[in-house]
Design goal:
There is one protein chain. The chain has 3 domains: 2-172, Immunoglobulin-like, CATH 2.60.40.680; 177-337, Sandwich (Immunoglobulin-like), CATH 2.60.40.680; 341-419, Type 1 dockerin domain, CATH 1.10.1330. The chain has 6 helices and 28 strands. It has helices spanning 2-14, 78-82, 354-365, 374-377, 387-398, 416-419, and strands at 24-30, 34-36, 40-50, 55-63, 69-76, 91-97, 100-106, 118-130, 134-141, 152-155, 158-160, 163-165, 167-172, 177-180, 183-188, 196-205, 215-223, 229-236, 245-249, 255-261, 273-284, 297-303, 315-318, 323-324, 327-329, 331-337, 339-341, 412-414. The strands form 5 sheets. Strands 2, 4, 6, 7, 9, 10, 11 and 13 form an 8-stranded mixed sheet that branches. Strands 15, 17, 19, 20, 22, 23, 24 and 26 form an 8-stranded mixed sheet that branches. The chain is flat.
Length: 426
Amino acid sequence: MKLSFLMFFLTLALATPTDLGAQSAVLSVEGPSLAGVGQSFEATVFLELSGPDEADGWSYGVCHDPLVLSLDSVVDGVVPQTANNGGDVFFNQQIVTADGYSVGVVICGTGCATLPPGSGYEMSIGTYTALQASTTLIAPCDTIGLPAAPTVIDVMGVFVIPTPIPLDLEVTDGPTFTARAPDLLVPYSAADGAAVFDVEISLEQDNTGFALLETAGYFLGMAHDPTLLEVVSVTSDLPLDGAHFIDVYLADPNGWRIGVVFSLAGSNSFQLTGQTVATATYQTIALSPLTGNDMGTTTTLEFSDSIGIPQADLVVVDNAGASHPPHLDHGSVTFIPDSFFRRGDANHDGIYDLADGIAILNGLFAAGPISPCQGTRDSNADGQVDIADALSILTYLFAGGAPPPAPFPGCGPGIVDECDQYLGGC
């Protein structure tokens, strides 16, 4: 077997990679993006094979920085265990060194089994331990072993060089935090561009194998486009009865910031597990670019340390007084123009009467016309259109039943793609 293994890698090393045109492959390493010193984790190699032909075998290396990571073990993924007609492949060998490992596989020595084009093929799984704080890569490579095996996929006797996608990894020597802003869809009035909405900001200790810290406070700032938005208010959402310090700064037209100290003595602290820590209320400015605009737009909400004077770093502080600059997951707001409708007006005549109940029944049972604006047919606002909606109309009109939920009797905003053709006179 040692001779076969050597000849296998010598053959690959001497082969000339060939471009098969439509044939391509991607070799990616996937795993956590964050690890703590001393933590063990897995990084999995996946293959994506595209094109008309099937693979007979492969060779690849996976490299890491031995000063940052140690490779504890390597095991086969699903593919080497099943590719040979449901069983183990004909030839499968690994070389493990201090800076990585290599794999060489022949599915079937006589061509009796191949790997068809596909994605998500699990090839191998490496278990690593983080040694020291750094940013590093676990990446496909062709430098492992003697001779070093090239990273190639054997497709019908021709070697395809896969596109390598490494795993980017940050190793920290203590807990880290992430500040997150959401991506929102916000309706607005196309007539005057008006919109008011809330943005919830969360903080979470990242899962790096460390115990949850008790935190003593935080400082965050967020920038927005002042030609489109202005901030109305910012509030802290944590239960801060007896908080030592809360400071909200709104005087900068480019954004806002908030600083909170829960307690200097540590009597009031929080474990940050993704809960909302602050809510900012925004509105569009008068005569904004959305005024008279029925196309909408998207704008960013970015965490920033440049808001106000004096400026300050974004940070989470733990009870021991240590500062933790958070990772920043910025947000966005996509504005969509309002479409208006009147609930229960199933026939779009602007009147709520018996004809609407009949229109709902005709649509359900007699192949009658159906309004694309579901809210006009969902008269009881339960998210479904059924016979209960027709009955709710009749009960309201003739038996003293409850009126339809809003928007009723006036108009209100609906889903743009559904209700932009509502003809009920809103």
